Description:
Blueprint: H1 2-27, E1 29-33, E2 38-45, E3 48-51, E4 59-60, E5 66-68, E6 72-75, E7 80-84, E8 90-93, E9 98-107, E10 112-127, E11 137-141, E12 145-149, E13 153-158, E14 164-170, E15 172-177, E16 213-216, E17 219-223, E18 233-234, H2 237-240, H3 243-257, E19 269-273
Parallel strand pairs: 10-11
Antiparallel strand pairs: 1-19, 2-5, 2-7, 3-4, 3-6, 6-9, 7-8, 8-10, 9-10, 10-13, 11-12, 12-15, 13-14, 14-17, 15-16, 17-18
Amino acid sequence: MKRLGFSILILSIFLAFFSVWPARAAKGPMLLKMGRGEARITLLEGTASIMADGQKAWRPLAVGMTLKGGDQVNIENKSRMEIRLPDQSVLRFADNTRFKIQKIDISRESNARTAVINVALGKTWANVNKSFGVKPNYEIASRNAVCGVRGTVYRMNVEDNQSVLVRVYEGEVNVSGGSGPERVAGVDGPPKSVAGPVSIPGPVSVTMEQWVYIVKSMQQIRISGDGIAHKPESFTEEEDRDAWVDWNKARDAGMDKAGPDEEGTGAGAWLFPFGH
């Protein structure tokens, strides 16, 4: 009789645990690891696809999947995506954005902190972790501009005509002449007719001042589709307001409340909330 009572008690505890676990799991964090050359998708609203390095076919992306150097990504219409790097820095991409990850190499132990992202089209938001302890060497590049991180929070818009808008919210960003006429992200669309070969001018020597601007907090720089940069100028919060900016600022505020850097021993450990 005692044995039967004990068995019923154990079964009751077992059932009670598993009846509560799904509700707890929906809110609780799960510790994940990522390698020094990886980024992980922490949020995906809508749909996005990837063509991995060395592959010729696109496949759908999902939250929790990793990205690495050579991967091409296409964010579909009415969609947006967030990825997290091993140093807890975050990049977000709006709908109709196409980009390629050139390189990720981040490790506190190796004093490495490099990330290079090429954006062919669309909107990108960057929030670089200030507390990692290694100076960042981050670049977000388009055909006509390269943003080298000296600060923390900024965004880049690349339009269909390859004109670029960069706005800095915190810190400083180096903005320089872009990567030239080659296709930046290598994201292929439908086949198109192309013109035959033409003569192009040879290289021209330019000074550093012609190519590099330092864009400071609450400043912006515009670069035309033919690569001509306007001088940095101030912008206001009022003129900057839109749904994309508001969403990113809300996400950034959530990051600030999440607590200190959870990065661990080289590979990078971070808290990934269920349900995102």
